[in-house]
Amino acid sequence: MDEQEIHIRHCMLYEFDRGSTAAEATRNIHAVYSEEAVGSSTCRRWFTKFRSEDTSLTGKPGFGRPVDFDDEALQALLDADPRQTTRELAEQLNCSHTTVECHLRALGKVHNFYKREIELLPTRWANVVENNGEYIVD
After folding, report:
1. Which domains does the chain have, with CATH numbers?
2. How far apart are CA 71 and CA 103, in angstroms?
3. Mean pLDDT, residues 73-86 taken together
4. Which of 12, 15, 22, 101 could pair with 44 as two cysteines, CB 3.0-4.6 Å apart?
5. CA-based nearest residue to 97, from 69, 76, 117, 72
6. What's the predicted TM-score (pTM) here?
7. What are phi and psi of 85, to 5 degrees?
8. In sequence order, which residues have a C-beta less than 8 Å from that of residue 40 and are 6 or more positions away?
9. Angle 22-32/3-18 helices, nearest 10 degrees?
10. What angle, rounded to 10 degrees, do the helices at 40-51 and 22-32 form?
11. What is the mean pLDDT of residues 50-60?
């Protein structure tokens, strides 16, 4: 847990002690720091915790999303067959396809299907013209 995260939690506790609502606290924190500093649902969750008289600023184990994704396994699957869909990869990795998409972006693997296909269009149309309008030629 980094210093910024602890500081934001202190700010939420301060706002709670002032009698602010979670929504007011979120707005105040956004005004001082940024929109990305804390989400409204996170602030509501911490306010619920504070209301139960638990003012510790450390999260419980599992408080938040667990990160147990194996990027190396994803890369190995891609090396074996780079044409797999995100859903196929997700099934093999036992996670959601959106998780796979996120990690592919993080690995620098952007989906460039459309760009590649658009670049191929001129040569494909030239082939159609050469074959008297026949698109599929054996």
Report:
1. 3-51 (1.10.10), 71-129 (1.10.10)
2. 7
3. 89
4. 22
5. 69
6. 0.46
7. -80, 165
8. 22, 23, 26
9. 130
10. 130
11. 85
